[in-house]
Inverse folding.
RNA sequence: GGGCGGUUAGCUCAGCUGGUAGAGCACCUGCUUUACACGCAGGGGGUCGCAGGUUCGAGCCCUGCACCGCCCACCA
């Protein structure tokens, strides 16, 4: 830190470079600037630093991932925060790393194998896992390099991976601890089975999509009777696994049948007719077939009524031996054949199109097959309750706050979390079984069974849900469970920024695990940023071809412009991508570059940067610097990045460049040496401030220009954020400036129409030099004038048109002032303003009338 | 089915605790001004989704409706 790279006053080399480049060229300089920061060690956090810590843990991207728009936006947000806090004097740490992403990564490698004509079973578990590691070492974490291109100040020297040995230790520790508390248990339950992943997945990994299926109505004969029950199903193949027919207990139509026996078609199984509240009498015929083995609802009913749980569909998505003549068929084939048979038997009553929501695996897109299997579950209630409380009490705050509903909605259901996955890539469950059916759970591999001492132990082959390990991210990345100073210093963190789709999947679980294992919430503020859609409003996705690669934007516009544009787009819930925003960023960067060229090439760079106190315009710009700095920091503190970026733009472009710099030119190019020095000093000071305030958003160009500034300086990234204490704010002066600018605009408009304009300015008019530049504008200073007065030599038609406008304005103001309600309830200032308006219009109308009659 | 959010200028979006609608882009008209044409100055363009209500006053508050998006959800 504190590395000086600028030898002193601006060198001739810098001068030449500034003169040569009237356009800023980001691609040429950004990588080198990044290098400077990196070699100066500015990304490392020092646990021994006396500064207060500020910590963000990056949502770890998938190790196989590529930087997409969401990453880029989130990177821009987090980096703006980290850089601002660093400049504000915090010891900042932006935790860096990647996620092993069990299913997703395993799928990538399996796909590779398939190209070689192999499956993972050909390799065997050990070799397969080694192959995944090999892949990760060779191609993995490319995304981390891409974050560098964006300029993100992550702590690259402590990059973590959720499969690191230390991280694995943390996961094991957590598993064992939760098991010993009785929160993890193994059970045979119905789970969401993804046939192509060949694994169970949790409820949250199921995506519901609307699909049109056929609803079949099928007759089930009632034994020893002429009656039949008609049931409806979209999955006729599961008829083979039916173990009951259910009706509602209050349904008078079927009351007499409850307790009797129905005959399942095709298999001719005799099953009980039961009564259960779950059945909706108004749906279809009011009778339901019950298949505990293949439907989550039926499973619950089955457990309530002690029904057998038959399974006809296997884990491979094909019909198993229980399906008799249908064994070996795929589900779809079986469905067709079963329907055929029903038709032959004359038991098929109807086939209707039926639109409903169907679960799909969020990784493979396959339709979920609900199947009964032996899995590990996590009991949520004891973990979720304190986590809910943490948000209710405000220890964790969501931004925007409305997103807390998403969190509460899910959390308060306390549904068991299926944590085991039938994969090979991931954290293998630390559980060993002996032949006597005993279970040994330990952080290290046991030599013998904890109960019977048997040495014939077999480890549970399953791995844990990826989200189980990422739930530990905020502290496992800091070396937990090993006590150490980084953990001590940098937990808990402060901010988490992510998209809303993983609030329940990830954010909620980090809060739970943080509270459970550290006793403290992992962060205080959760920023839920917008999702950037494609320009046509569709989801940005590779497969739809609607994706835009942020790295291409960086190449084309530069990282600064891209970051600016993304932050500008980050405001609302969902935004459509518009390259206009990035364009705006590019233009702003260029503006900054050229304004700097003016200050550094045309000004006197031997003077010390300082705001002038003599000239009104210098005092005004100082006031604006203080105001804008304050406003921008305030907006970032509220996580309103779009607002902050907008304020930054207005400050740089309008206040500084359009108004101040233009006005200062008169002194800069004038004869008076003293004025020239004063203007230069103020310009340098403004530039310095402007660069610092813009740095969190546009780190590269600000750092580059900083390098051209005279004097010995640290890198801008390591420079303290400029304090506005001691900088005079002057609201009255700012108001007068607005008034002056309005008068100038008016004069310009009239002069533009070809009229001769006379502007009477009061003493202390701010931007006289701007007026004096204008053609056809005559400036008259009058000690009597209270406000600038713009008068023009106008033709009759112009005067008449203006009179019409003024009269209607006057009428409106008068109407308001004669409204009792307004006078009695409106605030006093408003009424005063209205009175003032009325009298001004009155005077103008009189003036116009007299000129017209003359 | 439940919840959340959106509907403001041709486009992308701002609009704080209710006080006569804003920005950028695009468009039109002038500027070969010595930082910048990725520029400067000026201008046109909106009955703020629809219908009611509260209020002296509503884009902002209330009710209902329509459409869009997202999250959650076990109705065969």
């Amino acid at each position: 830190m504190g590395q000086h790279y600028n030898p002193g006053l601006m060198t001739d080399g810098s001068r030449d470079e500034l003169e040569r480049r009237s356009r800023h060229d980001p691609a040429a300089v950004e990588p080198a600037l990044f290098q400077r920061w990196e070699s100066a060690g500015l990304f490392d956090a020092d646990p021994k630093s006396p500064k207060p810590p500020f910590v963000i843990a990056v949502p770890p991207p998938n190790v196989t991932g590529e930087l997409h728009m969401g990453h880029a936006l989130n990177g821009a947000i987090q980096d703006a925060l980290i850089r601002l806090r660093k400049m504000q004097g915090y010891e900042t740490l932006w935790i860096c790393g990647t996620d092993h992403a069990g299913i997703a990564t395993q799928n990538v490698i399996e796909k590779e194998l398939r190209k070689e004509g192999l499956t993972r079973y050909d390799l065997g578990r050990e070799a397969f896992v080694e192959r995944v590691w090999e892949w990760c070492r060779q191609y993995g974490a490319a995304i981390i390099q891409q974050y560098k291109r964006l300029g993100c100040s992550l702590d690259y020297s402590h990059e973590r991976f959720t499969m690191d040995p230390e991280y694995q230790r943390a996961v094991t520790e957590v598993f064992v601890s939760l098991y010993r508390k009785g929160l993890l248990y193994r059970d045979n339950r119905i789970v969401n089975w993804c046939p192509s992943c060949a694994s169970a997945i949790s409820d949250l990994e199921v995506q519901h999509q609307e699909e049109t299926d056929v609803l079949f109505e099928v007759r089930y004969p009632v034994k020893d009777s002429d009656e039949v029950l008609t049931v409806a199903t979209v999955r006729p193949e599961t008829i083979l696994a039916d173990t009951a027919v259910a009706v509602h207990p209050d349904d008078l139509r079927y009351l007499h049948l409850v307790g009797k026996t129905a005959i399942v078609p095709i298999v001719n199984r005799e099953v009980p007719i039961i009564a259960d509240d779950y059945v909706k009498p108004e749906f279809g015929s009011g009778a339901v077939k019950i298949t505990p083995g293949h439907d989550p609802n039926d499973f619950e009913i089955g457990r309530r009524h002690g029904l057998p749980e038959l399974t006809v569909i296997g884990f491979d998505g094909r019909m198993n031996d229980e399906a008799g003549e249908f064994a070996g068929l795929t589900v779809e084939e079986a469905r067709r054949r079963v329907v055929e048979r029903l038709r032959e038997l004359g038991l098929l009553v109807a086939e209707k199109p039926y639109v409903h929501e169907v679960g799909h695996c969020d990784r493979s897109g396959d339709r979920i097959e609900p199947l009964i299997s032996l899995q590990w579950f996590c009991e949520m209630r004891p973990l979720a309750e304190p986590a809910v409380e943490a948000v209710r009490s405000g220890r964790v705050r969501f931004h925007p706050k409305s997103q807390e509903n998403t969190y509460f909605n899910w959390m308060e259901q306390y549904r068991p979390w299926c944590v085991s996955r039938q994969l090979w890539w991931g954290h293998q469950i630390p559980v060993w079984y002996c032949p006597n059916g005993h279970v040994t759970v330990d952080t290290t591999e046991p030599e013998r069974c904890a109960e019977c001492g048997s040495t014939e132990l077999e480890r549970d082959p399953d791995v844990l849900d990826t989200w189980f390990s990422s739930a530990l991210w905020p502290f496992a990345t800091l070396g937990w469970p090993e006590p150490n100073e980084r953990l001590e210093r940098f937990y808990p963190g402060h901010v988490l920024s992510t998209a809303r789709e993983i609030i329940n999947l990830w954010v909620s679980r980090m809060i739970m695990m943080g509270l459970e294992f550290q006793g403290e919430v992992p962060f205080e503020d959760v920023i839920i940023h917008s999702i950037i859609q494609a320009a046509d409003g569709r989801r940005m996705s590779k497969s739809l071809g609607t994706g835009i690669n942020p790295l291409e934007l960086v190449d084309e516009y530069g990282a600064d412009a891209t970051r600016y544009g993304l932050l500008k787009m980050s405001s609302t819930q969902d935004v459509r991508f518009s390259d206009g925003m990035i364009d705006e960023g590019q233009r702003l960067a260029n503006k900054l570059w050229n304004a700097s060229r003016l200050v550094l090439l045309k000004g006197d760079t031997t003077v010390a940067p300082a705001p002038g106190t003599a000239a009104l315009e210098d005092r005004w710009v100082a006031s604006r610097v203080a105001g804008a700095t304050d406003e921008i920091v305030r907006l970032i503190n509220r996580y309103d990045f779009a607002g902050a970026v907008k304020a930054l733009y207005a400050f740089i472009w309008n206040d500084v460049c359009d108004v101040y710099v233009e006005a200062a030119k008169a002194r800069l190019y004038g004869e008076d040496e003293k004025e020239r020095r004063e203007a230069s000093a103020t310009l340098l000071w403004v530039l310095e401030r402007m660069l610092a305030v813009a740095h969190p958003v546009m780190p590269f160009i600000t750092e580059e220009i900083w390098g051209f500034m005279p004097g010995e300086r640290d890198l801008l990234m390591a420079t303290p954020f400029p304090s506005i204490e001691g900088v005079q704010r002057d609201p009255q002066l700012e108001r007068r400036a607005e008034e002056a600018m309005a008068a100038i605009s008016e004069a310009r408009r009239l002069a533009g129409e070809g009229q001769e304009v006379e502007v009477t300015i009061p003493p202390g008019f701010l931007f006289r030099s701007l007026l004096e530049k204008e053609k056809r504008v005559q400036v008259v200073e009058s000690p009597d004038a209270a406000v600038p007065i713009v008068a023009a030599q106008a033709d009759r038609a112009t005067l008449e048109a203006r009179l019409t406008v003024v009269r209607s304005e006057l009428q409106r103001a008068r109407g308001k002032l004669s409204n009792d309600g307004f006078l009695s309830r409106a605030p006093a200032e408003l009424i005063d303003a209205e009175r003032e308006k009325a009298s001004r219009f009155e005077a103008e109308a009189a003036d116009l009338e007299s000129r017209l009659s003359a």
Confidence is low (pLDDT under 50) at residues 1-9 of chain A. Chain A is about 45% helix and 15% strand. The longest helix of chain A spans residues 641-668.
